[in-house]
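ok so for the tutorial part 2 we go from a plain amino acid sequence to predicted structure tokens. step 1 is just haveing the sequence, like this:
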Amino acid sequence: MIVVAIIGILASVALPAYSDYVRRGQLPEAFSSLADFRAKMEQYYQDNRSYGSSAACADAAGTASWKNFTSTEHFSYACATINSQQGYTLTATGRAGAAVGHVFTINHNGDRKTTQFKGATVSAECWLTKSSTC
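step 2 — the prediction. this is what the tokens look like for a chain of 134 residues:
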């Protein structure tokens, strides 16, 4: 009976730690994709002198297929132009697994923000991974 109690106590500590470990392992997918999209948006700006139209980012004729900001395994991506198409905001929203409840953004200035972390609304000026503080 004592062995069962010990196993129960260990499991109650290990399971939340493992879940948090899995969540932290899925978040870098968003960070790398946002950084990649940001570099491509800057390349687009060099060619077109804007980030797209008021309707969509990187929407010039002949733009490569990356402009659709396709989803990855755990995140979906969106882009919106601002300041008369002289700026943009890229957003990664968790859509699967432990990434659900996380929203990260980056803009044309390289400003990183977290607007949702572990399902709670936050206003952090960085990409949160482990705790709700930068």
